[in-house]
Amino acid sequence: MPSISAIHSVNSGLCATFGMLFNIFLIWLIMRRSVPALRLYRCILLQTCVIDIYTICLMVAVQPVYIVVSGWNVLYQNGPVRLLPLPYSVAINLLWYFGFYFSITSNALQYLYRYLVLCRNTEITPMRYFFMLSATAVPVIFYLFMLCIICYPEQTQPIAQLNSEIFSNIHENVTITMLANSDSNSWRFLHLLYVVPYDIGCYIVIIACGIKIRRFVREKQMCSQAMKHNQQISIILVLQAILPCLGAIVGSVQVLATIALSSASAIYSTAFATLVINWVPVLNPLITILVIKSYRRVVFRRTI
C-alpha cells in the first residue's frame, strides 16, 4: 500500500493542476465571456477564484496531514515547507488555514453583497467591497492567532512520544508542526465558544439572504433571461456554500474513527479524510463553469 505521504503528494499535485487550470480559465471567462446581466456579479465570482488560487498555492507548499494520535490532534506537513524550522513552518501553515476558513466567511459576504445589490438596490463599488471583504477576515485572523497559541509545539508536550507512536503505526518519520490535546479546555473553548458560533452565524447570513433573494426574484417582474441568470448565480452560491461543510464532515469522521478504530486504523482514516478538503478549490470553478450557460457554451465550443 502506498504511504500516506505519497498519497498526499499525488492528491496535492492533481488538485493543484486541475484547480489552477479551472480557476485561470474561469477568470478569463468572467472577464471576456460574461453577458451583461452577469457583469454585476463579477467581483463575487472573481473573489472565489482568487481565494481558490491562494489556497491551492499554500496547499501545495504545506500539504497538511491531520491525524489523531492518543487523544492528541496532530498536524504535520508533507510539502516542502516541512523543511523550514519553527516558527516559519507554523506561520505558513496558518496561512493555509486562513484560506480554508476564509472561504466560509467570504461566501456569506457574497450572499450579503447580492442581497444589497439586488434587493436593496445598493451600489457597492469594488473598493467598498474590498473593505467589506477585509473586515470579514478579522474574525478568521483572530481564530488563527488563538490557534497558534494553543497548538504551537512546545518542549513540555510529548512530541517525541507521538513521533514514535506515529512511526510504529504508519512507518513514516514526520515533523509535527501543530498539536493540541483533545481534552484541553482551551482547545474546547476555542471551538465550542468561538468557531462553532462563528460558522453558524455565517450560515445564518447565507440562509437569511438566500431566502430574501429568492422571494425578491419571485415577486419582481423580471424578463426570462434575467430570471435564468439569477437562478444560475443562486445555484453556484448554494453549492459553494455547501462545499466548506466538507471540513465539518471530515472532522466528524476523525472523531468517530478515534473512538471506533484501533490506533493504526484511526491514524490512517483521519489522514486520508483530509484529502477531500483539497478538492474544494477544484470543484468551485468547475461548478461555476458548468452552471453558467454562457461559460458552458464556450467550453463546448458553441457560439454565445
UniProtKB/TrEMBL annotation:
Keywords: Membrane, Transmembrane, Transmembrane helix. It comes from the Eukaryota. SUPFAM superfamilies: Family A G protein-coupled receptor-like (SSF81321). Pfam families: 7TM_GPCR_Srd. The keyword Transferase does not apply. The chain crosses the membrane at residues 6-31, 43-66, 86-109, 129-152, 192-213, 234-261, 267-292. This is Serpentine type 7TM GPCR chemoreceptor srd domain-containing protein.
